[in-house]
Specification:
Layout: H1 13-23, H2 26-36, H3 40-48, E1 56-60, H4 69-73, E2 77-81, H5 85-95, E3 101-104, E4 107-108, E5 113-121, E6 137-146, H6 148-155, E7 162-165, H7 171-176, E8 187-193, H8 194-197, H9 204-213, E9 217-223, E10 235-240, E11 251-257, H10 260-296
Parallel strand pairs: 1-2, 1-7, 2-3, 4-6, 7-8
Antiparallel strand pairs: 5-6, 8-11, 9-10, 9-11
Length: 302
């Protein structure tokens, strides 16, 4: 049995964060999340918000609209692709009335095909896709796929400021279907995770190498291996590609740009965010635990 008094115990980062969050009014919780919670799209937004020229975003795998929100509020033209009917319903509810947001029900790949099997999960709304890689995946019917080359041609899109791709394993196929000879996105963000992509025929290095071959500078935002889908995840580090992942089971996002000014601002921002994102990951886990506790309710008294 320990007889140490509370005032004798050294505070830990967890205890400090927990006390701080407990004192925050609800209206201030969102700004804390905004600055501390690891989020590559938010990083891109902060870097690009002041001087984007055409202000066009392609959001491939838009889910319920979290990534596009800041851009849409700033008046960007956003083309959001979300084939999951449940997620798309929420996306339409939130952004369907915004004239600058266009919502498309098709999945994006490197070919145009009809009646492609689609899968979703009740464990996490964020892992719907064309690949069944988790035990919780269930068939959700079929979808139509198209390519960004076809889409950009049909919509006469000649400039893209931000291409964000999150398709649960199909990111390289999305990139292969982009019209690189005609359009060069200023920033590209796409997800890597060999656990998902090796069964589909490619690796982290092949995804990053594809962007490097297109003359993009590539930054790696590496996260620790996923413990549980639907729960909080733990961010690890930034690195310049080429590099070796700290853990071969890692996942994360590649942030790529050809623009030297954007690249320098990204480098500067990553240096500042490295410490705060590590602390912010702890904050995120505490917020998630608090949200789950609020949903479940307090334990019953004996």
């Amino acid at each position: 049995m320990s007889y140490a008094f509370a005032w004798q115990r050294r505070p830990t980062p967890a205890s400090i964060a927990k006390r701080a969050l407990g004192r925050l009014p609800e209206r201030l919780e969102r700004p804390v999340r905004y600055r501390l919670i690891p989020d590559e799209t938010n990083l891109v937004y902060q870097v690009m918000r002041r001087n984007a020229a055409s202000r066009v975003m392609l959001d491939v795998g838009a889910c319920t609209g979290g990534a596009l929100a800041s851009f849409a509020r700033d008046g960007w033209t956003v083309y959001a692709f979300e084939p999951d009917a449940t997620n798309r319903g929420k996306l339409v509810e939130r952004w369907g009335g915004t004239p600058t947001v266009r919502i498309d029900p098709r999945a994006i790949s490197d070919r145009t095909v009809s009646n492609v099997p689609f899968f979703r999960s009740d464990v996490s709304e964020g892992i719907s896709g064309l690949s069944s890689f988790h035990e919780s995946h269930r068939s959700a019917g079929t979808v139509e796929t198209t390519t960004l080359e076809v889409f950009c041609r049909d919509e006469q899109i000649t400039q893209v400021d931000y291409l964000k791709v999150d398709t649960e394993g199909y990111d390289l196929f999305v990139l292969r279907g982009f019209p690189w000879l005609d359009v060069s996105p200023r920033v590209v963000v796409c997800e890597f995770e060999d656990t998902k992509t090796v069964p589909l025929g490619y690796t982290f290095d092949e995804l990053a190498g594809y962007l490097r071959d297109l003359d993009y500078h590539v930054l790696v935002s590496e996260w620790y291996p996923i413990v549980e889908y639907g729960g909080p995840h733990r961010w690890r580090r930034f690195a310049n590609y080429p590099c070796t992942l700290a853990d071969e089971r890692a996942w994360g996002n590649l942030i790529a740009t050809k623009d030297p000014d954007v690249y320098m601002r990204l480098i500067a921002a990553t240096k500042l965010l490295t410490v705060s994102w590590r602390f912010g990951g702890l904050v995120q886990r505490l917020l998630t635990s608090r949200a789950k506790a609020a949903k479940i309710g307090p334990p019953s008294r004996p």
